[in-house]
Amino acid sequence: MFKRIWRYLKALITGKLDKWEDPELIINEAVREMKENQIKNRERAVQAITQKNNLQNLVAQEEKAVRQLEAKAALALQQGNRELARTLLREKQIKEQTLEQLRASLKQAEETSEAVKLAIKREEERIRVKTAEALALKANMKQAQIQIEINKALDGMQLDDTAQSWDRAEERIKTMQSEAAARAEVAKTGINARLMELEESSMDAEAEKELQEMEARLGIGTSAASTSQRQTTGQTAGTTEDDIDRQLRELEQRLNQR
Question: Which percentage of the chain shows pLDDT scores above 90?
């Protein structure tokens, strides 16, 4: 805890607080602290088990000493030395009292060591789970970072601006086409266009005259010319019945001559 506070203060002083609050760094720090605590707890477990083993050795030594004192007291009685046997038995009683205390301490040490070993096992399991969770959190964080970068890239594409540029280009092209059509229309009303129309009209008149002469030579010109003249000039209302009759008679004469 003190180390974490110190690192926080150090990051705050050096202006690297944002980096210190990086989720990946926080996860790595938590995993590192769990492993450090695991090492410390293992050391405590070793000390507890060592104490238990020492008590076991002491209990075994005291039990052996009690057996030896009892054997010596029995030997003294066999040799008729009752006073020595009494002294040995008194020492044996003291050893037995000490042995009872050692056995009680040994029982407590054994319970403690078993509890420590169980705690170490559970801590190892918890560390494995937390390590797996840390990997999953890192993977989720990387996925989130990738998604954020993708969203930033999509936001940077500026699709609306592209569409607006496309519309402006299309509108500009239509304007250019309209301008070209307008210029062509204006060009038709120019002097050159009028001259061309005049030349075309003169050529049409000459062609019409030549056509009428050809029809006259062939004997079919009057009717065709009259018909063409009526179609082009639209002078139906100005033609009298006498003219029609006259033309009809002339046509009949030419046909009879043929």
Answer: 16
pLDDT(62) > 50: yes
Q: What CA–CA distance (Å, rounded) separates 69 from 63?
A: 10
Q: How far is 103 from 113, CA to CA, in rounded Å?
A: 15
Q: Which residues contact 138 (CB under 8 A, 6 or more apart)?
A: 24, 27
- State residue 237's pLDDT score: 45
pLDDT on residue 17:
46
Residue in 34, 54, 257 with CA at minimum distance from that of residue 134:
34
* pTM, 2 dp: 0.44
pLDDT at residue 15, rounded to an integer = 47
Query: Got the DSSP string for the chain?
Result: -HHHHHHHHHHHHHT-HHHHT-HHHHHHHHHHHHHHHHHHHHHHHHHHHHHHHHHHHHHHHHHHHHHHHHHHHHHHHHTT-HHHHHHHHHHHHHHHHHHHHHHHHHHHHHHHHHHHHHHHHHHHHHHHHHHHHHHHHHHHHHHHHHHHHHHHHHHHT-HHHHHHHHHHHHHHHHHHHHHHHHHHHHHHTSHHHHHHHHHHHHHHHHHHHHHHHHHHHHT-HHHHHHHHHHHHH--TTT--HHHHHHHHHHHHHHHHH-
Domain ranges of the chain: 2-156, 177-257
Task: Give the span between the Cα atoms of 48 and 55, in whole angstroms.
Answer: 11
Query: Of residues 135 and 182, which shows the higher confidence score?
Result: 135
Which are the contacts of 73, defined by CB distance < 8 A and separation ≥ 6?
84, 85, 86, 88, 89, 92
pLDDT of residue 209: 77
